[in-house]
Specification:
230 residues; two-stranded antiparallel sheet; 7 helices; 67% helix; 6% strand
């Protein structure tokens, strides 16, 4: 099994095993999980395919199974389904075990930081495709969510902040923290070149743009189903 595939299965498998915790019972939400993840995964896979073709980033065959969907290795495709599953699981665990935690200050501080830093990075790196696209999209998502005052948004921020811990572990391994060469490499001509250890700074904005909409769609589908039953 390739290193990248092993990372995906360990990440997904650990959350899947814990999904049967009685207080969370995450497995019961599969009818909301699958469409929420798929709706967002499709445009991100297209984005990934285009950027791979353009050489914005790429993959080291030494750490892959060798199975591809277009230009994307199997492991990369699974990333857009397995990692969001883990984030949704974290979201529901935090809802179950910390239902009354105050999130107003965290939400405001984090949102302001994401918008201001995202806009600044996008405007000062308009020729860097990864920086401009990831930072612009994440800023727009924050502004839209704050303007709409989505009830789920503060808890989505809470989940994302907590998910940054496993994010740094998994992305660190993928970007070369534990290997001689990175599993996923990035062309610095299309990003700022700023790294959090081995992880491009843009990955934080990119993953935010992937995960927050998935949580929003998941929440919408779940509430709609409950309202129909009511």
């Amino acid at each position: 099994m390739s290193l990248y595939l092993l990372l995906m299965f360990v990440s997904f498998g650990s959350c899947l095993a814990l999904s049967f915790d009685q207080k969370v019972a995450f497995y019961k939400n599969v009818k909301f999980i699958i469409p929420a993840i798929t709706i967002v995964a499709i445009p991100f896979l297209i984005w990934d395919q285009i950027f791979t073709e353009k050489g914005v980033w790429g993959f080291n065959e030494q750490y892959l199974q060798g199975i591809y969907l277009g230009k994307l290795p199997l492991e990369e495709v699974l990333f857009f389904f397995f990692i969001p599953y883990c984030c949704l699981f974290i979201y529901e665990v935090l809802n179950a075990y910390f239902p009354n935690v105050s999130l107003h200050k965290l939400t405001m501080v984090f949102s302001i930081f994401m918008v201001l830093s995202g806009i600044m990075m996008a405007l000062t790196n308009m020729n860097q495709w990864y920086t401009f696209s990831a930072c612009t999209l994440s800023s727009l998502i924050v502004v839209f969510a704050m303007k709409q005052k989505f009830i789920w948004y503060p808890r989505a921020i809470f989940a994302f902040v907590v998910a940054l811990i496993p994010f740094f572990i998994v992305n660190g391994v993928l970007t070369g923290a534990a290997t001689e060469d990175p599993v996923v490499w990035y062309n610095n001509a299309h990003n700022t070149g700023i790294r959090l250890l081995t992880i491009p700074l843009e990955d934080v904005y990119y993953n935010f743009s992937l995960l927050i909409p998935i949580i929003g769609i998941y929440h919408f589908l779940k509430i709609r189903s409950y309202n129909r039953k009511g």
